């Protein structure tokens, strides 16, 4: 009966349109009152505070701030230029440029939707001019955005490490943020290869491509060096930033606000070494971000939280004094935008902490584990059922809410089946990454469709092969633990 009150209230709230954070909080309060009356609510405030007081969670607002600053400093444009200079001459070079740019920018933002918004305004028009239909262009960029929460520094891994820490104990090693960061590298690179393989077989209208082959990327982007970019939080909330107008809505994230993408990937010959070197030097400020973050963590110089703070300061210095595309009057707007995004995420974390407390206090997780283990003795079948549940959840929930909801329910089961926390963390993150491109929510796909100016349903048609390929990679990661454990084990993490 307690399970019915908790999950029933949660689903009803979602169905009538209550935000996820409020739905989790209201259902938790309702269940506490159902089991113990008004007096049982006494510890609720201390539980909410405890959920937010973790030092590790400080990394989230700092990474968000660094991402917002980097988007305004023209880093995404410079990364596109560098990738295009290296691979624009190749057949399907534009597709590879899109995927590799997403890979590079994801190492800055730590968020899938933010990656799509930052690079989509440049690359979706370019893909369309190169002969790809808008739905395939949008789906390719949206799927590439998955890398934002699979590759380090992923906000999802930070949250998983915090929540899963309660399950470390005798026979179960505590999983660290650094280990999870490295665990996502190999699966992320496998996904890059698979995405490029799928992109090679996407249909294209070559006549359109030839007719639109025009100037080099630098010329096209030189006409609009300060294109507007969208900032999207890990929760899927969208807030754009412009040159002088502050916060915008998703309606502003359109190709009209960004570069036309003309000339990207249209080069018939390999770019001269001088062009590649110049593009590389312009991209160095962005390329150094993951080096600073990951190098500092694994070099023992600072913790993940401190690395996020260093990345924020570095991004601010780059914007003000290196690229000089960030002006002092814009700094207040940046901090305001990052603060709003962080507030949304922390509200979710607070509500989800109370929700997880109810699950643990009433032994709901134990009941679910016993029930699932009684269904079948087959480890493969149980893992497939859990993956299916996570894929469905990812269609409706953001990663942070899903982690707090499902880690207490599924981690005990998976641990009992013999999986380790590292594999579980990467597996759950990949499930929720796929959810970013699946309807009915699919925030990555929604952002990409908005940029491409096509109906959401049209973009859904183009994303099917990418969803199938993503699930295939997910199965590899699930049943071959070495893919997520090899690199962190090699580094002794």
TrEMBL record:
Keyword annotations: Cell inner membrane, Cell membrane, Membrane, Transmembrane, Transmembrane helix
Main location: membrane
GO cellular component terms given for this protein: plasma membrane
Residue ranges occupied by any TRAP C4-dicarboxylate transport system permease DctM subunit domain in the UniProt entry: 7-483
Leader peptide range in chain numbering: none
Domain of life per record: Bacteria
Gene Ontology molecular function: any one: transmembrane transporter activity
Cellular location(s): Cell inner membrane
Membrane-crossing residue ranges in chain numbering: 47-70, 82-105, 140-165, 177-198, 279-301, 335-359, 379-397, 432-451, 463-483
Membrane topology: Multi-pass membrane protein
UniProt name for this protein: C4-dicarboxylate ABC transporter permease
Species in which this protein is naturally found: Leucobacter komagatae
Species lineage: Bacteria, Bacillati, Actinomycetota, Actinomycetes, Micrococcales
């Amino acid at each position: 009966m307690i399970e019915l009150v908790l999950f029933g209230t949660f689903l009803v709230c979602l169905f009538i349109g209550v935000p996820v954070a409020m739905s989790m909080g209201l259902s938790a309060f309702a269940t506490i009152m159902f089991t113990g009356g008004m007096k049982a609510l006494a510890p609720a405030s201390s539980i909410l505070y405890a959920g937010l007081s973790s030092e590790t969670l400080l990394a989230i607002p700092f990474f968000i701030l660094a991402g917002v600053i980097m988007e305004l400093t023209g880093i995404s444009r410079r990364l596109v230029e560098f990738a295009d200079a290296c691979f624009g001459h190749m057949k399907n070079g534009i597709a590879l440029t899109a995927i590799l740019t997403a890979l590079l920018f994801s190492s800055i933002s730590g968020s899938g939707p933010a990656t799509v918004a930052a690079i989509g305004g440049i690359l979706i028009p370019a893909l369309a001019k190169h002969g790809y239909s808008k739905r395939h262009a949008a789906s390719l960029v949206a799927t590439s955005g998955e890398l934002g929460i699979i590759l380090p520094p992923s906000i999802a891994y930070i949250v998983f490490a915090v929540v899963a820490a309660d399950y470390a104990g005798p026979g179960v090693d505590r999983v660290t943020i650094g280990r999870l960061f490295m665990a996502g590298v190999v699966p992320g690179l496998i996904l890059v290869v698979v995405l490029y393989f799928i992109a090679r077989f996407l249909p294209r209208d070559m006549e359109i491509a030839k007719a639109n082959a025009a100037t080099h990327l630098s010329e096209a982007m030189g006409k609009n060096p300060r294109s507007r970019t969208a900032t999207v939080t890990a929760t899927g909330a969208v807030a754009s930033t412009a040159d002088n107008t502050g916060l915008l809505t998703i309606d502003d994230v359109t190709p009209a606000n960004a570069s036309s993408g003309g000339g990207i990937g249209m080069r018939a010959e390999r770019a001269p070494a001088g062009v590649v070197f110049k593009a590389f030097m312009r991209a160095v400020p962005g390329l150094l971000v993951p080096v600073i973050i990951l190098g500092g963590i694994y070099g023992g110089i600072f913790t993940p939280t401190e690395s996020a703070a260093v990345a924020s300061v570095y991004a601010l210095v780059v914007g003000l004094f290196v690229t000089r595309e960030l002006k002092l009057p814009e700094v207040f707007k940046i901090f305001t935008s990052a603060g709003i995004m962080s507030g949304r995420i922390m509200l979710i974390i607070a509500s989800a902490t109370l929700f997880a407390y109810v699950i643990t206090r009433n032994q709901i997780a134990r009941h679910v584990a016993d029930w699932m283990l009684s269904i079948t003795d087959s480890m493969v079948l149980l893992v497939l059922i859990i993956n299916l549940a996570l894929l469905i959840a990812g269609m409706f929930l953001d990663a942070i809410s899903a982690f707090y909801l499902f880690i207490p329910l599924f981690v005990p089961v998976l641990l009992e089946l013999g999986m380790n926390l590292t594999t579980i963390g990467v597996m759950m993150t990949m499930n929720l990454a796929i959810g970013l491109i699946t309807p009915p929510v699919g925030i990555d796909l929604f952002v990409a469709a908005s940029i491409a100016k096509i109906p959401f349903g049209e973009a859904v048609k183009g994303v099917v092969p990418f969803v199938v390929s993503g699930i295939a990679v997910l199965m590899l990661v699930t049943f071959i633990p070495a893919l997520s454990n090899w690199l962190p084990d090699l580094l002794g993490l």
